[in-house]
Amino acid sequence: MELLNGSLISNTIKTELQAKVNDRKAKGLKVPHLAAIIVGDDGASKTYVQSKVKSCLDLGYESTLIELSENTTQDELLNKINQLNNDPLIDGYIVQLPLPRHIDETAVLLAVDPAKDVDGFHPENVGRMALGLPAYLPATPSGIVELLSRYNIETAGKKCVILGRSHIVGMPMSLLMQRNHPFGNCTVTVVHSKSQNVIEECQKADILIAAIGKPYFVTSEMVKEGAVVIDVGITRVADSTKKSGFKLAGDVDFEHVAQKTSYITPVPGGVGPMTIASLLMNTMQAVEIKNN
Ligand code: GUN
To answer: Global pTM?
Structure first.
């Protein structure tokens, strides 16, 4: 078994991006500027957004964090989005999900300028991805493909089982793993809440990607000997031995599953850092496309 070390690969990518930033500075070009909007006080979401902003600053990107209160109206949020769309200094931005219940997520995602949609959530980018056209790819699935590519893991012709069909991970992941690409070309099965024979489906997977947000859902009996296991889950579970009172749990029972796998991602330090690296790559792409 070999660990897929997302922290290490993410640091390598950050070093590559930092060199690009320095190069742009030396040429008098604009450095990338990422903005992030967060609505409400969800602790985990705040932590994620803050680490995105911090990573930007570490690399020499510019970064703006817009924190809006839980009772922000949909119109207020749409106004903020409109401002970002029209701000020439902002190359790309994200609206952290989930949003409070009173806000229509689809209306918000539709309002984002597809050219600044570095999360790749706008229907135009989702459609372009599905058709294999140039697009911003969503950060978590493209980070996983990047991780597979950096470890040179063969995917062509393999059976890939994806647990979960969320718009953020499962659905785009299924498109990326089946596309005609050096780290695609899988036969993909998406397992979801209405699926039957979940255990048997997982047992057939050469590559198993768990993205359902249920701690320790994937047990040893569900994993084929030698499989590649990617754990997207990152749920806070109570842990009185920790100062914070919680620890981060993946969707995979790592302790019992790891020994059966050829490669596996840890939680934390696997997919999470790759998501941030992808977002930073997309933001670099945004500034490079504008060619200024
Ligand atoms: N919530 C969980 N993952 C993500 C992500 O990749 N982007 C945004 N905007 N929100 C998220």
So the answer is: 0.97
CB 141 within 8 A of CB 211: no
Of 66, 58, 64, the residue nearest 91 (C-alpha): 64
pLDDT of residue 290: 84
> What is the distance, to the nearest Å, from the Cα of residue 20 to the centroid of all Cα atoms in its chain?
22
Distance (Å, whole) CA 274 – CA 268? 11
State how far the alpha carbon of 255 is from the alpha carbons of 3, 116, 216, 262, in Å: 13, 40, 10, 14
Q: Give the span between the Cα atoms of 172 and 213, in whole angstroms.
A: 16
Q: Which residue has the tokens 């647990």?
A: 163
> Can you give the residue ranges of every domain in the chain?
29-113, 139-272
Tokens 């600053």 -> residue: 57
User: Tokens 């980018």 sit at which residue?
Assistant: 125
- Look at residue 104 and give its three-state secondary structure: coil
Angle at CA of residue 43, ends 39 and 44, nearest 5°: 95
Domains 29-113 and 139-272 fall in the same CATH topology: yes
Domain formed by 139-272, architecture: 3-Layer(aba) Sandwich (3.40)
**Taking CB atoms and a 6 Å cutoff, what residues make up the pocket around ligand 1?**
94-97, 119, 139-140, 168, 275
Mean predicted lDDT score pLDDT of the chain: 97
> How far is residue 96's CA from residue 79's CA, in Å, rounded to a whole number?
16
User: Can you tell me the distance from the alpha carbon of 288 to that of 266, in angstroms, rounded to the nearest whole number?
Assistant: 33
Distance 71 CA to ligand 1 centre (A): 20
To test the pocket of ligand 1, the residue of 97, 103, 169 to mutate (highest count of ligand atoms within 8 Å of its CB) is: 97
CB 220 within 8 A of CB 254: no
CATH number of 29-113: 3.40.50.10860
Report which protein residue has its CA nearest ligand 1's atom 6. Answer: 139
Residues of the chain with pLDDT under 50: none
